[in-house]
Amino acid sequence: MKPTHLLRSVAQSVCSLLDYKLRATHSEPDPVCSPIDYKRAAGFVTFLAAVLALAVAPAVAHAGSCCKPEPKPEPKDACCAAAEIENRVQPEGPQPSKIENPFTRLSLYQADGVFTDDSEKTFRLAELRGRPVVVNLFFATCGYACPLTVTDLLAVQARLSPALRRGAVFVLVSFDLERDTVAALANYRAARQLDANWILLRGDDASVRELAALLGVKYKQEADGSFAHSNLFTILNREGEIVHQRTGLSGGLDAALAALEATAAK
């Protein structure tokens, strides 16, 4: 309905109400409002509308303000977003380093032991990664078992192909912390004519015992200063995982040679 029609309808209703009141009080019916009555009624309706508008306007304004949707943030340029991330406050203290090529779960190269070679250089087992390795625990003054094992290892080395002989490493680790000094190990190398593919190591008690436990080697110093110990050597693949062990003091060289060749082929 148009506003003018609505106003006319309301005015007519008011006029009829006035007419009804007039007839009730004076018994002078006037069923039709005069133009003057219409003007009066219209003015009265306009007045009521103004009052109502003033009353409800604050409530409508309040409702509108609380229900307005929040403006969406404008997207930032890629360069600005990157700068914001870069400028965020970093946590204090040292952060863990990212390991690009972590060792496998079974790798002995996870061991934390620190050793010293016969040229007095610091050495860690992880430096052997990527090469076929033969490891043997010994002590340089051993009079029987250790010399036999080293002789067998020299025989295995001699049977390797030229390429594998250049790449394979033979590691001797002493558990005689007192007598096997750097100089003693250097003398042992010379006496047994061990080439550059042999690495002779000594370490502190914790480092040696950790390696012995990983290899399954047991040793105990006797009252005379010698050692009772397991007789075995171990072959590691390029990742430092155990792939073969020879136990005892004789035989098993063919199997050890095959394990080394298989490791080198991978």
**Secondary-structure element string:** HHHEEEHHEHEHEEEEH
For the largest beta sheet, what order do the strands appear in spatially? 2-1-5-4-3-8-9
Structural class: alpha+beta
Summarize model confidence as the mean pLDDT: 78
Question: In the CATH classification, which architecture of the largest domain applies?
Answer: 3-Layer(aba) Sandwich
Gross geometry? globular
- Provide the helix percentage: 40-55%
How many strands, which pairing sense, and closed or not: the largest β-sheet? 7 strands, mixed
> Total domains, how many?
2
- Beta-strand portion reads 15-25%
Low-confidence stretches: 20-36, 62-67, 78-91, 93-99
Provide a count of the helices: 8
Distance between the terminal alpha carbons, to the nearest Å?
Answer: 92 Å
Can you identify the CATH class of the largest domain? Alpha Beta
CATH fold label of the largest domain: Glutaredoxin
Radius of gyration: 50 Å
CATH superfamily of the largest domain: Glutaredoxin
Number of DSSP E strands: 9
Tell me what the structure shows.
The chain has about 270 residues and is of the alpha+beta class. The protein folds into 2 domains: about 60 residues, no CATH class; about 160 residues, Glutaredoxin, CATH 3.40.30.10. The protein contains 8 helices and 9 strands. Helix 1 packs across helix 2 and helix 4 crosses helix 8. The two termini are about 90 Å apart.
What structural keywords apply?
seven-stranded mixed sheet; alpha+beta; 15% strand; Glutaredoxin; two-stranded antiparallel sheet; 9 strands; 8 helices
